[in-house]
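Q: What changes when calcium ion is included in the input?
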Amino acid sequence: MKSPILLWLACCVLASESVAQGAAAIHEPTLQLEPGLTEAMAASPAPLRTRSSTPADEGPWRLDEFLGLPQWLSLEGHQRTRYESFDEQFRAGRSGSGQGIFTRTALLATARADWFEANLEILDSRQFDIPSDLPLNTGIVNTLDILQASVGANFENLWQDEDQLALTFGRHTMNVGSRRLIARNRFRNTINSFTGFNATWKNASGDGLRAFYVLPVQRLPGDLQSLQDNDQDSDEERSQVQFFGVHAGVNDLIGSVDAELYAFGLDEDDGRDLATRNRDLWTVGTRFVKPPQAGEFDFEFEAVYQTGESRASSGGTDTTDLDHRAEFVHFSAGYKWATPMGPRLEFLLDYASGDDNPNDGEVNRFDTLFGARRFEYGPTGIFGAFARSNILTPGLRLSLRPTESTQVMIADRFHYLASDRDAWTTSGLVDPTGGTDNYIGNLAEIRVRWDPTPNLRVETGVAHLFAGTFIDDAPNATTQDDATYAYIGTTLSF
Ligand SMILES: [Ca+2]
Ligand SMILES: [Ca+2]
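A: The predicted holo structure follows.
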């Protein structure tokens, strides 16, 4: 496991969504609102890239074409190397700055014969030279492991002309709806996966229904020493954690507005070597999206209600089940100009509830389940300043394409605590009395993506957190300073 260079040279991804990510992609959900249902309903694993019949010099270089593999067997992947630098730690009990190099290498093999499909995807996520005082977790490191190993069946023209039914069994990744609650991670160095059953049906116009029952995969190892050493340990499903749900979507429900309705259940219990908050949650939500079009206004609205029981902590001595009631709302409205660079400006507002009272026997902090957050709250990696819990964040975002191969995104968001008695969850800063002003700070960000060839993307970005009054005055704050995060990385797809 000590030969990252070999892996580095070896391969890349393009698994399910990365297929879309590599080709069309490029668009993160809210930067370029993805037409909700297309991705929401995409079978998982998603359809393969279709191999083109055009000469090789007209499309991206492909590993499987280079190897001369038969048409029924596809092999694709990606390799990403990213340098991240972080100055002025904002987390409670930590200080200083740091930097590191992070690699992610994936290789997906897919075999297809008639209706049958089998997938195997290997993912290797590592860090190099990360200082010991930076937070390190399984979101960053998971050395050489199986991300997907599944069999599936695909059928067409079952109940309607041109409808499609995809059944998947085994370990797989999922993108559902807005990706706020269930996502195959893009920016993050490791990727969520699930083992179980997934059925997705959609009709010719993209309306669809998905149902799944899975055990979320627990990434191992999780202890700091192993993560610092990039040790390998096989990931595991635990029968104590079960996740299930249904998601329905209708395209063009009213005009060009797409609509979604969903319910997800999460039921977890402590097990041997498994400490959980014993979440027993129902998460129900709805989403309406008018996708961006040049010369038109667009919007997105999503509202989520979460109810059930959970515990205040995952500590083994905490055995008190508390009522859990939490909410999340996203609203954004934008306009895309019909000019050459296609600039799009949007206003954004997110509310994710926090716990109103630490002593009332109730948990009100919203839980984003298996969702992604980079596309809304700035870079994650070793930064990850904001998450979808206890925040109120108005902001503005401008995105444009200066040239055919470059994309620029500039964003500015003001972050407030939704409940001033609950924590700024990613930092651990908290004032249980609620006496401190709830303005955390202003996160300004710029990101540039450049695709010099169809196989290579260069991405760089800077995020600066202007410290607000909560950072200045929270009783357990260790710094009053602004924080700055910068990164640059390359992704090679093959
Ligand atoms: Ca592992
Ligand atoms: Ca409470």
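Observations recorded in class: Confidence is low (pLDDT under 50) at residues 1-48.
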